[in-house]
Amino acid sequence: MSDRFAERLLAWYDKHGRHDLPWHHNRNAYRVWVSEIMLQQTQVTTVIPYFLAFMERFPSVRELAGAPVDDVLGHWSGLGYYARARNLQKAAIRVVEDHGGEFPVDQEALEGLPGIGRSTAAAIIAQAHDKRAAILDGNVKRVLARYHAIPGWPGQTSTLTRLWQYAEAHTPDERVRDYTQAIMDLGAMVCTRSRPVCERCPLNEDCIAFRRGETHLYPGPKTKKEKPEKTTWMVILEDENGRIMLERRPPTGIWGGLWSLPELDPAYGPEELREACEQTLGLDCGEPDLISGFRHTFSHYHLHIQPARLPVAKGILIQDRPDRRWVHRDEALGLGLPAPIRTLLTRPGQTTLL
DNA sequence: TATCCGTGGTG
DNA sequence: TCACCAAGGAT
């Protein structure tokens, strides 16, 4: 690029950028990698406490590779996108077994690890090694879409291709670590989605969208689709010792690998729940106690959760299955639980009895 | 290419 | 109350 994009950005970064984030200290490839995975589709303020606790428990790639999956998921509980946690540990095991515990330095090898794509690989290269690699995350997409007035939704291949071209072109040969942090900081602090602070932007002079007064038009909107509504029963089974039954969810799909409350087919009516527990779970239960349901919104559908509390008759045992277990509430909260289930178990008073 | 995968903040 | 979306990647 013949303009002074990177130069202006770096000068702004030196004065106003974020230089003190937790992963900026004791910087190494492992810490950079974990932070980048956590930061996928997740804001900095959300990540910080998770990152600190994660590093306390898993200080190096070897401890992560050797940890129980439940421990890793437990530290991810509430962060969302749990495939990131499963892939993180898979990648850690590969780094230990195939690379002697040392992270690959080249982009191709990094992209071969589960959970690491083009942008994350580039971020690791730039942040950990200060070597030239172009990133393209949500911040960069927004900055570039406005600066060059690139129409269309960034998810569209044609739009994405153009964005990558500009991302590559603007990335400098020197100070790549600072540059990648700088353009993300600009997107997060100045070139925000709503009400960008263009007066304080070091790039406003040559920003086409700003000069046209059209920053609100970029990036282009995603084509919206109607979200389907799904319904499910979630049963709180409590035995005479005050323990509740948890069930491990399948490794794929929503909340994959996490512990949650047992689900029953929504086709069962309230009066059939007792029988459903008997047939589905092999449990002899008392009368169901219906709790008011709530709606949980995901990216692509709404889930209507109908909780029901059922007492379990004394002396009844279920067959020993590794994906089911009786736990006290305190113990349950130490496992990887989905956020709404955690809320349900922590603050049952928040919901109203029917 | 389109869809799936979470959660919390925002207007 | 609710649609929209943020440091993407896998399928």
From TrEMBL:
CDD domains in alphabetical order: ENDO3c, NUDIX_DNA_Glycosylase_C-MutY
Family matches, as SUPFAM superfamilies: DNA-glycosylase (SSF48150), Nudix (SSF55811)
Annotated GO MF terms: 4 iron, 4 sulfur cluster binding; 8-oxo-7,8-dihydroguanine DNA N-glycosylase activity; adenine/guanine mispair binding; metal ion binding; oxidized purine DNA binding; purine-specific mismatch base pair DNA N-glycosylase activity
InterPro entries in UniProt: A/G_AdeGlyc_MutY (IPR005760), DNA_glycosylase (IPR011257), Endonuclease3_FeS-loop_motif (IPR003651), HhH-GPD_domain (IPR003265), HhH_base_excis_C (IPR023170), HhH_motif (IPR000445), MIG/MutY (IPR044298), MutY_C (IPR029119)
One Pfam family, short name: NUDIX_4
SMART domains tied to this protein: ENDO3c, FES
Needed cofactors: [4Fe-4S] cluster
Keyword vocabulary terms for this entry: 4Fe-4S, DNA damage, DNA repair, Glycosidase, Hydrolase, Iron, Iron-sulfur, Metal-binding
Catalysed reaction equations from the record: Hydrolyzes free adenine bases from 7,8-dihydro-8-oxoguanine:adenine mismatched double-stranded DNA, leaving an apurinic site
Enzymatic class: hydrolase
GO biological-process terms attached to the record: base-excision repair; mismatch repair
HhH-GPD domain ranges (all copies): 38-189
Gene3D superfamilies: Helix-hairpin-Helix base-excision DNA repair enzymes (C-terminal) (1.10.1670.10), Hypothetical protein, domain 2 (1.10.340.30), Nucleoside Triphosphate Pyrophosphohydrolase (3.90.79.10)
Similarity annotation: Belongs to the Nth/MutY family.
Function: Adenine glycosylase active on G-A mispairs. MutY also corrects error-prone DNA synthesis past GO lesions which are due to the oxidatively damaged form of guanine: 7,8-dihydro-8-oxoguanine (8-oxo-dGTP).
Protein name: Adenine DNA glycosylase
